[in-house]
Amino acid sequence: MEDLKLTLDGGRGASGELGQSTFKFQDAASITNGRNDKRDLNSRANTQIKEKSVAAALKIFRKMHLDPEREHAFSVDENGYVHNYVHGDAHSVAIMGGRGEMIFHNHPSGGTFSKSDMLSTSLSAEKGIVASCVSGDHIFVKTHKFRANEFVKAVNRAKMQGLNYDDAVGKWLTANQKKYGYHYEFKKAD
């Protein structure tokens, strides 16, 4: 099994204006020296997940970690078991996910995926990534037809139109699903 340590930088610093604007995938300034991430016991999460499924694990993640001050992350297998549990800082969290696992992380200031989220997930063995915020979950899942190298190039050169950063990224990810072999959706909170 192959593990990869990723830093998921959640902040973007983008704000929208009235009317359509052009955006690129953005990241907040990340601090890589002196990271203060804290690993937690997987059992703290697993004991909360009564029905072992990815959907149940996401529900518990949302219940535990829609924190307005720092990012948190789970890596979850296809049966809903948490394998890694990490607490990060205000704009990023470093986590390792195994082959076929989903990464769940929150964005304290709200919003969709950052450039780092997209690139690190694309180049890893993980199945996908979820960015949770108060309004809902942005979900990106690679299919067996995922074209990683082409997707990475597209993310790096993307110029997106939208009312704000989240709208632009959502439109771009929706429009390019078939071309690059992934599934994207925004699922509103219950």
Structure in words:
With 190 residues, this protein is α+β, with helices and mostly antiparallel strands. The chain has a single domain (4-9, 38-188), classed as 3-Layer(aba) Sandwich (Cytidine Deaminase, domain 2). Helices cover 26% and strands 29% of the residues. It contains six helices and eleven strands. The protein has helices spanning 42-46, 54-65, 115-122, 148-157, 165-175, 177-180, and strands spanning 4-9, 21-23, 38-39, 72-76, 82-87, 92-97, 102-106, 128-133, 136-142, 160-162, 182-188. The strands form three sheets. A seven-stranded mixed beta sheet has the order 3-5-4-7-8-9-11, with helices on both faces. It has a two-stranded antiparallel ribbon with strand order 1-6. It has a two-stranded antiparallel sheet with strand order 2-10. A hairpin with a 5-residue loop joins strand 4 (72-76) and strand 5. Helix 3 packs antiparallel against helix 4 (148-157). The protein is globular and about 45 Å long. Residues 1-6 and 11-17 have low confidence and may be disordered.
The CATH class label is Alpha Beta
For the biggest sheet, the summary is: 7 strands, mixed
Report the end-to-end length measured between terminal Cα atoms: 36 Å
Major sheet strand order: 3-5-4-7-8-9-11
Question: What is the radius of gyration computed over CA atoms, rounded to a whole number of angstroms?
Answer: 16 Å
Helical fraction: 25-40%
Overall average pLDDT: 87
Report low-confidence residues grouped into runs of 5 or more: 1-6, 11-17
What is the CATH fold-level name?
Answer: Cytidine Deaminase, domain 2
* Principal-axis shape: globular
CATH architecture: 3-Layer(aba) Sandwich
Count up the helices: 6
Helix and strand element order: EEEHHEEEEHEEHEHHE
Percentage beta strand: 25-35%
Q: Got a strand count?
A: 11
Q: How many structural units, i.e. domains?
A: 1
**Structural class of the secondary elements?**
alpha+beta
